[in-house]
Amino acid sequence: MISQNQNVIQSDSLLSSPSSKAIDADSYFKKNTPPSNLNEITAKSAEFIATNTKLGRPVVLVTSGGTTVPLENNTVRFVDNFSAGTRGAISAEFFLKSGYSVIFLHRKHSLQPFNRKYATPELGFLDFLFISQEGTVKIKPQYEESLIHDIALFNDIISQNRLYMPTFITLSDYLFSLREITNLLNPLGPNAFFYLAAAVSDFFIPADKMVEHKIQSSEGELSLTMNQVPKFLKPLVNSWAPNSFVVSFKLETDPNLLEAKARLSLEKYGHQAVVANILHTRKNVVWIIKRDSMDKAEEIRLSDEEIKNHVEIEQYIIKKLIKIHNSFIQNSKSSS
Amino acid sequence: MISQNQNVIQSDSLLSSPSSKAIDADSYFKKNTPPSNLNEITAKSAEFIATNTKLGRPVVLVTSGGTTVPLENNTVRFVDNFSAGTRGAISAEFFLKSGYSVIFLHRKHSLQPFNRKYATPELGFLDFLFISQEGTVKIKPQYEESLIHDIALFNDIISQNRLYMPTFITLSDYLFSLREITNLLNPLGPNAFFYLAAAVSDFFIPADKMVEHKIQSSEGELSLTMNQVPKFLKPLVNSWAPNSFVVSFKLETDPNLLEAKARLSLEKYGHQAVVANILHTRKNVVWIIKRDSMDKAEEIRLSDEEIKNHVEIEQYIIKKLIKIHNSFIQNSKSSS
């Protein structure tokens, strides 16, 4: 039932030229409405970046969670991308522990750093608590040690203004916010780190083609034609923040495609590294593919022992990437 | 770009007859795979219903959250329905407070009764806690009173085995579980209460038409044709649990359609009541439309004062529906 037909070009197509398949980024922004809180996100990001840069702290933008593509203007239905935001939330923690300050641009209601440990389908907030004999609320003893550690760390980070967590829901919210934050990070040059872990939609329905009200099922089958989303990595790397350190993610389900697609992405956009992973093994193995070493993907794989002990692979990913980022900064200095 | 074309019938269509638009429920179950934990859900539901019925407690099935429709077998993308599960989670609380035992069949990661108050985008778990001077974890004083109340209530309910919370993600998970639980509630006759608040997909892609791997955006536009989901309310009301008390929900964005669609649903399926609401005002006003009073929808509307004080409209909905349920039980007795 799914067909991906290159030949079906709508007569009122938004395609920017007959030969290209997707509109360009500028046209996308012209045709879509920014989120209502964009000014707030921009102002707070600017302040956050200024404060942290003044104190000599490196700043990373971590994007996390899936973007939605509404099917109606009054949205009841939408196309979503699989992501609970686990990778992004854990990664943000390891950046923070490594001394980075973090703008955590994430899907509303997706997992947040630190808090993500305490809201699982199996254990809710109230499961951690009990009422003591004195009638006060207490933490169950088995959770106390880990919680004391996390609260201390979390409160330190918040009081030092090292974590800012703006949200998005739709693809369009995400792209407008990404562009603004990127423009603000651009002056940091090679020190700016982009860790683009969000699961961004590849297809969308242009706002001017969307129906106003909930689609009625009584009218039969539903046929949808969705346009390709412009590849925003291209302007990000080439014009919004051309001297920054940019890491993108590539998630596939077919292992045969993964490495080739990651390398193609580096060639097309010219950024520094891709973290490549397969849906069903993403928690235990990833490959880091760098632009300047096209010959070999670097594998990071948890051992059976580590998997048993719930070691989080993100700590190795972040450690490796920070090392690459530091070399990148050194190289940028020596070449300038 | 969205077209809903009644004329596009696929040559290899799954339509059960040339004149109908959707396959029937039986065909749906034959063509889809049950969730891997269906046996567990069935066994636990059976035990839950037996225990609670033996103790003379009424049992309600509350469904909550949106179902997903995967676009790929190895799912990266899916169509989702707008729902955080707020209505269902709050409603379950009021059922529990009114003496009902609750099977809360909900979308994984959607809001849960009681816990939902303590996991919002604004306030995460760690925001409620601090480390005291003695080095132990404590609840911030402003939250203690409400928490003591909720923990006591929650622990009571759990220890009395009055709440069972199975989950679903996909449309197919939901429908298989719904059918099993309905079969188990059927012997309760008019005492069985179905409160079907889940936002269930109207369209799906049949499993045998789905692509195996992540759809590649490099191949151009994406065209999707989705089939209508069978109307499961029909077999539920007419054959799975024909003597039960069934309440469905109708959410629209266009106020002009709402009442007519709710009444049409009662006529078509023959259940007892519809809770009708409009997307943008659903927290402040709903209409209850009963089958046996086709002349007038009953409006439940919060006052400005109540809205200011964060009164939850679900308490009025549940109170009203329990009253209707009790009359229904009386009528069923006197007519049998």
From TrEMBL, chains A, B:
<dbReference type="InterPro" id="IPR035929">
    <property type="entry name" value="CoaB-like_sf"/>
</dbReference>
<dbReference type="GO" id="GO:0015937">
    <property type="term" value="P:coenzyme A biosynthetic process"/>
</dbReference>
<comment type="similarity">
    <text>Belongs to the PPC synthetase family.</text>
</comment>
<protein>
    <recommendedName>
        <fullName>DNA/pantothenate metabolism flavoprotein C-terminal domain-containing protein</fullName>
    </recommendedName>
</protein>
<dbReference type="GO" id="GO:0003824">
    <property type="term" value="F:catalytic activity"/>
</dbReference>
<feature type="domain" description="DNA/pantothenate metabolism flavoprotein C-terminal">
    <location>
        <begin position="194"/>
        <end position="293"/>
    </location>
</feature>
<dbReference type="Pfam" id="PF04127">
    <property type="entry name" value="DFP"/>
</dbReference>
<dbReference type="InterPro" id="IPR007085">
    <property type="entry name" value="DNA/pantothenate-metab_flavo_C"/>
</dbReference>
